[in-house]
TrEMBL record:
The chain crosses the membrane at residues 20-41. One of its GO terms (molecular function) is RNA binding. Residues 20-112 form the S-adenosylmethionine-dependent methyltransferase domain. Its EC number is 2.1.1.-. Keywords: Membrane, Methyltransferase, RNA-binding, rRNA processing, S-adenosyl-L-methionine, Transferase, Transmembrane, Transmembrane helix. Gene3D superfamilies: RNA methyltransferase domain (HRMD) like, Vaccinia Virus protein VP39. The keyword Metal-binding does not apply. This is 23S rRNA (Guanine-N-2-)-methyltransferase rlmL. One of its GO terms (biological process) is rRNA processing. It comes from Escherichia coli ISC7. It is an enzyme of class 2 (transferase).
Length: 119
């Protein structure tokens, strides 16, 4: 489970924001019945340029996810984004279907996931 928190604006009390985040984490663990070590916390802050793509860690741990017939590996810890965005599922499938039997240069994203969606 990935919990993403946007850094609070300066107008929000930092202590209240931190407590709210702890409450969300506790509720997520309780409601979903997951072990705390299965939760990944990511905090988004305003960044510019290449800073938004910097590595956050060096764990190199991958989780296999299945999307339609494709098995993909995602890294939940080393970067802010996994690169495999849920709202792109339909577009990835459509690209996979349209490219069936054709050469496909994947410029869709840095994940290379769209060609994997071919049935």
């Amino acid at each position: 489970m990935v919990v993403q928190e946007y850094a609070p604006p300066k107008t929000i009390d930092a202590h209240k924001a931190r407590q709210r985040l702890f409450d969300i984490i506790a509720a997520t663990i309780s409601v979903l019945g997951i072990a705390p070590n299965k939760l990944v916390l990511k905090t988004r802050e305003r960044q510019k340029g290449k800073n938004q793509y910097q590595k956050l860690g060096e764990k190199g741990e991958f989780l296999e996810v299945t999307e339609y017939n494709a098995h993909l590996l995602v890294n939940l810890t080393d970067y802010l984004d996994t690169g495999l965005f849920l709202d792109h599922r339909i577009a990835r499938r459509m690209l996979g279907q349209m490219s069936k039997g054709k050469d496909f240069l994947n410029l869709f994203s840095y994940t290379g996931s769209a060609p994997c969606m071919r049935d």
